[in-house]
Specification:
Layout (H helix, E strand, L loop, with lengths): L6 E3 L8 E3 L6 H9 L4 H7 L5 H20 L1
Antiparallel strand pairs: 1-2
Length: 72
């Protein structure tokens, strides 16, 4: 998945944390929700402005960051 279609870093939004485009929801927010046991369906029910592809983009972003950490 090309997360860059859904995730953007803008220093003017949430102090430059990676956010879902068009929202103030960060990748960290989404990962935190998953870590508490929320499902994609739970998150989408609580935040109807989000789409499933955006949630997957957050996971893809995190996986890419992890991959870069491991290879450095």
């Amino acid at each position: 998945m090309n997360y860059k279609k859904h995730i953007k870093i803008d220093k003017e939004i949430r102090f430059g944390k990676p956010c879902i485009i068009g929202t103030r929801i960060t990748v960290f927010d989404v990962l935190s929700w998953y870590s508490t046991g929320m499902t994609a369906e739970d998150i989408l029910a609580d935040f109807p402005q989000l789409k499933k592809e955006q949630l997957f983009a957050c996971l893809s972003y995190a996986a890419e960051k992890e991959r870069k950490l491991i290879t450095v």
